[in-house]
Design a protein that fits this description.
The chain is of the alpha+beta class. The longest helix has 18 residues, at 122-139. The N and C termini lie far apart (58 Å). Belongs to the TRAFAC class translation factor GTPase superfamily. Classic translation factor GTPase family. EF-Tu/EF-1A subfamily.
């Protein structure tokens, strides 16, 4: 494990490393446990430091970062025989923590409010965990001890600290949901690994595990993914894996799982790069998993995929696959190669090799708190080596956005991005995508557009499904499919949005963006055509003007005016822009829109709806 990370919590060696100086030089946002202050006691008084009777402060007492005001992590020195009033107070506090973590909270037992690892005796720890069980029962949650650790300092009695995961699915939600985009070069073992994780059976070394993931005949024949497919891996409230090995259908997995990881399996081959970019920009993944083959190392599109994830600011972790084919020296060479790339000035990442369960829990906590931490796993889909560490990581990784951010998005007007369009027998037209803001219910009346002429059509939501199971209410940030009944499919296309009737959407042919040209063989100038990706919008645009310069070269920055060539699009100021054309690539963000005439409902829309 990297030295900067292991300072905060030792790596499986039975004691915590670090000193009193650790807390002062660690950014609270990067800590192993960024800890919120008490929910119910919000005053400015500093907490009193409570020392155990046998405790003798010494110079090598390890620390965690001090508590922060908000978050889902709670420090508790001990929970021994609380009074009824204290018990009620603790239950209220637990509800607050769960709300902050959108259904998940982590309790550090044996830790002072200021982050000092004091530890508890065997008896006190047992009693504290029993009290925590009772608290969890009261609020309807489940608890699982992630790890216990002896604290090493001058004390006559051995003392322990414990880290406990508490999970409760919010009452208005079926399960906690995280989306993980799977990136990597062609033939690096992405689909095979997802097949092993989601089906529960190891691969035979010839690609049997990936057959269930393919959507087209040519994918089965070539063994290469060319489309975007979705796979689910569930965890129940005790942290046990729920997948197709015990459940026959996706509905069964959804019913028994309290946390769901949705994998977005993307294409690795360079000729399917536009599909991969579309998957990254439109499906809004929480994390990206970059799969690297141990025997080939960084090859093909690996660097490009890493660069795409970083440009779109998607937190990334790395899985080195096929370790059963290589010697240990080859695997270590691949790890060193990755570490060199991650530490380069462009990346500025802190690699963290995960070698045991303790590392996996630390990696999950660190990864969610700091975008610079990059966990590295070494796994095999044939022998099953270290797959359990990957599962521990997925089980303990918390949601990125907090409850406040989601509440703010839910209070905005409804906006649903259309990513997929289907025609289902006896159901009619169905659209798949992500709800960007607001709340969507069955029976809601929305408008969809823009059409080629910049108009919107009225429609009514029939039914909603998430992960193939029925859902009545869809909230901001969730992906789902919506049935639109007999709505004319020819009026729909990818890149459209479905918005509230009250919204006044800005539709534009032309927009300005501040861009950085990442690579271009010659010069980038007026009249150049590129494929632009903005969220779920993917369309060719012409460069109408480069402000302040005649032309752009690799690495240069400028404000550029783009014009779509096919149809107008719905855009927002501040949205990330990614464009490409052959070897030309660039990133940036929308700075100004030039909207066409204000939204007018089409005359015939009542008949079409």
């Amino acid at each position: 494990m990297d030295a900067r990370v292991s300072e905060l919590f030792g790596s499986g060696n039975g004691h915590c490393s670090g000193s009193q100086g650790v807390a002062s030089n660690v950014n609270p946002g990067n800590g192993y446990g960024v800890v919120p202050k008490k929910a119910c006691v919000k005053n400015n008084k500093k907490p009193k430091t409570r020392f155990a009777r046998n405790f003798k402060p010494s110079n090598n007492t390890p620390y965690l970062p001090p508590e922060a005001e908000e978050g889902n992590i709670e420090y508790k020195l001990k929970l021994v025989n609380p009074t009824q009033y204290r018990f009620e107070h603790l239950a209220t506090q637990m509800k607050w923590r769960l709300q902050e973590g959108r259904g998940e909270a982590v309790y550090q037992i044996g830790v002072e409010d200021n982050g000092m690892l004091v530890g508890l005796s065997e008896e006190d720890m047992r009693t504290s965990l029993k009290t925590l069980h009772m608290l969890a029962e009261k609020v309807g949650a489940d608890i699982a001890v992630l790890r216990e650790r002896e604290v090493d300092y001058d004390s006559d009695v051995p003392r322990k600290i414990a880290e406990v995961l508490i999970r409760k699915v919010p009452d208005d939600q079926q399960f906690l949901d995280l989306r993980v985009a799977v990136l990597g070069n062609v033939d690096s073992g992405k689909s095979t690994m997802l097949g092993v994780l989601t089906q529960g059976e190891l691969d035979n070394g010839r690609g049997r595990a990936r057959l269930n993931l393919f959507r087209h005949l040519h994918e089965i024949q070539t063994g290469r993914t060319s489309s975007i497919s979705f796979e689910i891996l569930g965890f129940n409230s005790k942290g046990e894996v729920v997948n197709y090995s015990e459940s026959r259908t996706a509905e069964e997995i959804c019913e028994s799982a309290s946390k769901m990881i949705t994998f977005i399996d993307l294409a690795g081959h360079h000729k399917y790069l536009k599909t991969t970019i579309f998957g990254l920009t439109s499906y809004c993944p929480d994390f990206a998993m970059l799969v690297v083959s141990a025997n080939t190392g960084i090859a093909g599109t690996t660097r490009e995929h890493l660069g795409l994830a970083m440009a779109l600011k998607v937190p990334i972790f790395i899985v080195i696959s096929k370790v059963d084919l290589c010697t240990r020296a080859t695997v270590e060479r691949t790890v060193r190669q990755l570490e060199r790339v991650l530490k380069q000035p462009g990346c500025n990442k802190v690699p963290m090799v995960v070698s045991n369960t303790d590392d996996a829990v630390t990696a999950a906590q660190q990864f969610a708190q700091s975008p610079n931490i990059t966990p590295i796993f070494t796994v095999s889909s044939v022998s099953g080596e270290s797959l359990d560490l990957l599962k521990v990581f997925f089980n303990t990784i918390p949601p990125l956005s907090n409850s406040k951010e989601q509440e703010e998005l839910m209070q905005q007007l409804t906006e649903f991005q259309v990513d997929e369009i289907y025609t289902v027998p006896e159901v009619g037209t169905v659209v798949g995508g992500t709800l960007y803001s607001g709340i969507c219910r069955e029976g809601d009346h929305l408008v969809v557009g823009p059409t080629d002429s910049g108009q919107f059509h009225k429609l009514t939501i029939g039914s909603i499904q998430r992960n193939r199971s029925a859902c009545r209410v869809l909230k901001a940030g969730q992906a789902a499919t919506l049935a639109l009944g007999n709505f004319d499919r020819s009026l729909l296309r990818k890149g459209m949005v479905m918005v509230s009737l009250e919204m006044d959407p800005t539709i534009c042919w032309m927009f300005e963006a501040e861009i950085v040209l990442l690579f271009h063989a010659k010069t980038f100038h007026k009249g150049f055509q590129v494929t632009v990706h903005i969220g779920n919008v993917r369309q060719t645009a012409t460069v109408e003007a480069v402000y302040g310069k005649e032309e752009l070269r690799t690495g240069e920055k400028a404000v550029v005016l783009f014009k779509f060539i096919k149809h107008p699009e719905y855009l927002k100021v501040g949205a990330k822009v990614l464009f490409r054309e052959g070897v030309t690539k660039g990133i940036g963000h929308v700075t100004k829109l030039q909207p066409i005439a204000q939204y007018r409902p089409s005359q015939s829309e009542d008949d079409e709806a």
